[in-house]
Write a structure and sequence with these properties.
Jelly Rolls; three-stranded antiparallel beta sheet; 9 strands; globular
Length: 166
């Protein structure tokens, strides 16, 4: 699951932080707090340790190959896919729009820095296949990245390798 070289016909798509969308979701939280209002029933608010990332699909006929993930130091990163086509000016993120399974990578505090990251491989495989399936009907897909136990976005590199279907 660490960084590696992709096969010649493979496409490695990096997750990119969508800072504008993350900020818009943070403004929603602060607006509710300032006005004393409650979130809508079923609404999923962005937590302080979360950020929105995106994958852009230039080719939509893909097969999942593998994950590339590196994390300096220790911590836990959880990646949750979002099923909606994002229109944050019109709709808020609802809990029912979060996909299963989620992807989780981690390195424990006592693990050496050069130890491989841990993950739930079956979930990661299914998650990657689900992303490839959704790419068939999307050009962009959004994800919530949660950073815990010391993990930070600055110490993270995450991408997914796909091969073209043909």
């Amino acid at each position: 699951m660490e960084k590696a070289t992709a096969a010649s016909n493979a496409m490695v798509l990096p997750f990119k932080e969508d800072t504008a969308l993350t900020e818009m979701m943070r403004l929603r939280v602060s607006s509710l707090q300032r006005s004393g209002q409650k979130r809508q029933d079923g609404e999923r608010l962005l937590l302080p340790h979360e950020a929105v990332y995106r994958l852009d699909f230039h080719n939509q006929e893909l097969n999942f190959s593998r994950w590339y993930f590196s994390l300096s130091g220790h911590g836990r990163v959880t990646i949750t896919g979002i099923s909606q086509h994002w229109t944050p000016d019109l709709t808020n993120l609802m809990t029912r729009q979060l996909l299963e399974p989620i992807g989780t990578f981690w390195r424990n505090l006592n693990d050496p820095e050069d130890s491989p990251l841990k993950c739930l491989e079956a979930d990661m495989q299914e998650f990657g296949e689900r992303i490839a399936e959704l790419a068939k009907v999307r050009k962009v897909m959004y994800f919530l990245f949660a950073f815990r136990e010391g993990a930070e976005a600055a110490n993270l590199s995450c991408s997914v390798e796909f091969t073209p279907e043909n």
